[in-house]
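INFO batch 0412 | record 1 of 1 | parsing
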Amino acid sequence: MVSGRKCGLGGVMAADKYPVLLILLSLSLVRAVFEDQVGKFDWRQQYVGRLQFASLESGLGAKKLIVATDKNIIAALNSRTGDLLWRHVDKDTAEGTVDALMMIGQDAITVSGGRLLRSWETNIGGLNWEATLESGSFQTMSFAGSQETPRYVAVLKNSALSLHFLSNGHLKWTEPLPESDTVQYQMLHSPYKGSVHVVGIVPQSHINILTFSVEDGSISHQARVLTPWLRSLHGTCGVVGDSFLVCGDAPMSSVHILSLLSGEETVRHSLQSAGIEVSEDLDELGVISGARNGNGAALSQFFLQISPRRFFLMQYRDGAVSPLRDFSQVSLVNFASTGEKTVAAVMQCKTDGNQKSGPETENLTVQSCSEGSWYCPGQTFTINLYMADSGRRLLETTTSFTLEQSCVRPDAMFLQTFLKKDDSVGYRALVQTEDNQLLFLHQPGKLAWLREESLADVVTMEMVDLPLTGAQAELEGEFGKKADGLLGMVLKRLSSQLILLQSWSAHLWKMFCDARKPRSQIRNEINIDTLARDEFNLQKMIVMVTASGKIFGIESSSGSILWKFYLHGVHPGSSFKLLIQRTTAHFPHPPQCTLLVKDKETAKSTMYVFNPIFGKLSQLAPPPLQRPIIQSLLLPVMDNDYAKVLLLLDDQHKVIPFPTTKNVLQQIHELAPTIFFYLVDVEKGKLSGLRLHKDLSTEEIWEVLLPPDLQRITLVNGKPSNEHVHSQGRVMGDRSVLYKYLNPNLLAVMTESTDTHPERCFIGIYLIDGVTGRIIHSSVQRRARGPIQIVHSENWVVYQYWNSKARRNELTVLEFYEGTEQYNSTSFSSLDRPHLPHILQQSYIFPSAIRAMQATITERGITSRHILIGLPSGAILSLPKALLDPRRPEIPTEYTREENLIPYTPDIQIHTERFINYNQTISRMRGIFTAPSGLESTCLVVAYGLDIYQTRVFPSKQFDVLKDDYDYILISSVLIGLVFATMITKRLAQVKLLNRAWR
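INFO prediction complete | emitting tokens
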């Protein structure tokens, strides 16, 4: 104990005596990214997802929007720029679902997963307090209090009502709801007068009204009212005025008014007597009630929806219901309050002529985009404000905006209202469209900012090379064709050289102008017209497909969205497959991508063909797909226009080629015996192989059954089609060669046990030849379970799983070798005689879970491979493949040291200096995409989840690029000096020879 203190004191004294030495020793432990390197080769874009709730601050100087989304996110956006101020990402399960959001002052009250009641400080996103709710299905919540001041928050569950203090979240009281087994309690209302009203319904029977006292939770009033015409309270009922319940009755063309205070029988008000005609085939009347006014009471006005595009602004006053204004061709309606004035906002489709009201004009300006949906033909909408108490239109409040995409409708509108200096009402509008686009509009239609929130749910992507520049394109056709003749070829050669000279001069002039400007004023604007391939092919087009059916073209160096289009009619849960049929290498033919969309419910497939550079649908019509497509195969065979042939296999095992030309059919006819498909049936645990016949039919040639009652197939992974293998083997320490088993048809099949018990669960891996169905290797990890991540490349497989026995994550690597003698050095065929490879296997402990995993890829495959691992923290770890080498020895020998094999240790450490995204974390990472560049040392990486991050990695460092601090002046001066020295030496030698000749 004493000696320990002396050592500690000596360490402190040494630090005080030699501070410089301590700093120098610490420098070796510090790694950082220079400030000028941040954002130089990488970028990150953060998203929040589709809005479920939004609350906009009122007031002229309001600066933030509080939103809650379907991705279980609560966030604040800057209302001036649209940037993310702060964001809280909850669990991506039902426990993190945001059920409700309400604002009071600078605090946001939320309910998550029906269990957690939270209060947030909206300026910095801090958590004020958190309270746990009782079990039960969450219904709604409302502020409550007395003397027109909210002091509590009331939370309604399906079987209980609880009241919590707004100041700290503590529970004041909780009371069970009577008859909760039969009554569906759905509505909650507090008039701020010391009571809380709860309304429940028994469909097509009656409604129950309960009035609770705020002070002690006792039921002060209870009533039952017969409502045989009412099916639900949601959407058809609302609270207006002094606690009156308004419900629509479509069959009787009327509205019913019920007092929550007295609980007396409903009073029926006919709409025909008010001059409102309701269609006979209308199922229900929609009621949209307003927010509270400045005094905290509910509005006396409400919107009545009598058809999908027609609304009435109604008023209930003095026991009578009267219409204030009729609106046709309506997209959205809403109420908003400045605190002193309450307005009704109406969004309508803008027409060319004078707008008329009435049911006879409702369908004049809307056209059917697809079955069961409607859209505005010009995609131009207007927002107008009306005084809620009179229906009078407010002048100079019209906001017009146009949506870029066709067949897209606005589906949510939120208002930020304020009073101007002249006491008039001003507003800003946040509009969300069905393709998850957010627009923030200022009057009279100025777009302040736009966010593409569908990018929070990317499902697949590809990277496409950019096209050649005009000068490069001229060089491609510089020599012309033989039919041009001698004179034509000479003229074309001269014109191309002049174009090159012109572009070079323009480039020099731009460099000169930019050099004279401050760095902050230099703008490198990128648009589709100026897109061109750079010298090292580092700049590419990122094509991303989102779950909502929206496709984006993003420039890789800056993250700018260059084009986008929306696929109307894509249902949730659809699966997508993106294929590149033709790249930009075949000038003048444009590049071509094909997207296959498979509907989850109907299993029908749709194919879209488009240009990935300009984002335009191709004029080449895809074949009609009458049957569901179960497999697709992109062949290396090309048609006359250099487009790869795509084979589609339907559920009847018939093959549909695309494109379907005579040349393509002839090539398929010749290659049919060498074309094979594999199918996976997860429910039956069946893998099967099919051979193609010349008549485009198929026959099953092999089948592998994995008992579905014991295990289920979770992953089937093949090798990347664009992968290049540079080395056919590994040179060992004794100078012999260990040849790799390079089977391009090898499939890695991962399975999980159906029994989830920790003692009986297992995972299995099967390596199956996709042509013959032969099982090359199989192994089982006992007491292991998923989730599983896998990378399959060259002659190795790396997969991750959870070890239930040791309670840790593990990585297992498999490598396949033919041995010291290569079976066939020229080509590989799965139909050769069986030759099982040698399997090497090793496992490692990994100290974290893994969300995504991918291997780096380069143009020629010379560069060392790294495994990119996405961690739950959002970091991306670049792990050298050398650390996952099954030949790592436990005891190093002379031969293993000669091979530079790292001695085996069971655990793999996570070093933060291996993070390629430093502090630019990616929330809920779902995938990592890698693509080669023009430089062999460089691999392009895109990680996507809630965020999108793009960067470059250099697994073997930049061995083919000069460093940024390379001394050009020194090497230039040395070269110039050598040139002058050579010239002088040459002259001296000539003089010496001349003098010798005269002797």
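INFO post-check: The CA atoms of residues 243 and 261 lie 7 Å apart.
INFO record closed
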